[in-house]
Design brief:
With 178 residues, the chain is an alpha/beta fold. It has two domains: 83 residues, Rossmann fold (3-Layer(aba) Sandwich), CATH 3.40.50; 44 residues. The strands form three sheets. It has a two-stranded parallel ribbon. Strands 2-3 form a two-stranded antiparallel ribbon. A two-stranded parallel ribbon has the order 5-6. Strand 5, helix 7 and strand 6 form a beta-alpha-beta unit. The relative contact order is 0.08.
Length: 178
Amino acid sequence: MGANVLDVFNKFHDWIKLSIEDFSAMTKIFHVVSDFKETTAFINNRSPKIVIAGSGMVTGGRVLNYLQEYIGKPETTLLFVGYQAEGTRGRKLQDGVHEVKIYGKYYKVNARIETIKGLSAHADQNGLLQWLNEIKIRPERVMIIHGEKQVADAFRVKIKNVYGWEGTVPKLNDIIEW
């Protein structure tokens, strides 16, 4: 996905703040790894590296292959820059687990785990309320299906208080009829 984003930015320079020259220079210092074979070769290359990997909550994908190799090394830093949901491997790492299960095998966590807060691909509560403000036809009901239970329920109450709209926070496997 990251490689695709770089391609899009390369085609649409007006979407970014960097000059064309700075963007070009920046992308020349990256090595984009696009398949599993290349991932394995990259992992086996013992030179120092910064790996920017997908699967934001460490639930799948090639990031797991990197972790198998690097999570046990104290010179490794795993840096999270997005939200980690409850129950995910990413949240468990943030919460300080001492070992992590990857593909059925347990790995000791010796890597430093760090988090940069404030970066997210989602709007915050105020941003969502502003977005809801643009809705012209009152919805019959609002379903809040993303986020942790307490936060989602607080958002449901806020929607009721601000707009008077009924909201529901369904649980897994709930069937909602109206």
